[in-house]
Amino acid sequence: MAKQINCECGYVARGEREDEVIARIRDHMRSDHPELLEQVSDEDLRGWIEET
Ligand SMILES: [Zn+2]
């Protein structure tokens, strides 16, 4: 089962493990939403993960 996080901008981060998805969405936020990077915790990101 894969996991994904949908960003509010339409970007989708996918991965096999939670760690991967979180790393990908963090990379995306670093380039596209740097202001969110510090506001969102790993705990929040975990809550956004969907099983696909
Ligand atoms: Zn985004």
What are the defining features of this structure?
52 residues; alpha+beta; 3-stranded antiparallel beta sheet; 3 helices; 50% helix; binds zinc ion
Set out the fold topology.
Elements: E1 3-6, E2 12-15, H1 18-32, H2 34-37, H3 42-48, E3 50-51
Antiparallel strand pairs: 1-2, 1-3
The chain binds zinc ion.
Largest sheet: 3 strands, antiparallel
Percentage of residues in helical conformation: 40-55%
Order of helices and strands: EEHHHE
Number of strands: 3
Short description:
The chain has 52 residues and is α+β, with helices and mostly antiparallel strands. It contains three helices and three strands, in the order ββαααβ. Bound molecules: zinc ion.
What does this protein structure show overall?
Helix content is 50%, strand content 19%. With 52 residues, it is of the alpha+beta class. It has one domain (3-51). The longest helix has 15 residues, at 18-32. 10% of the residues are buried. Bound molecules: zinc ion. Residues 7, 9, 11, 28, 32-33 line the site of zinc ion (ZN).
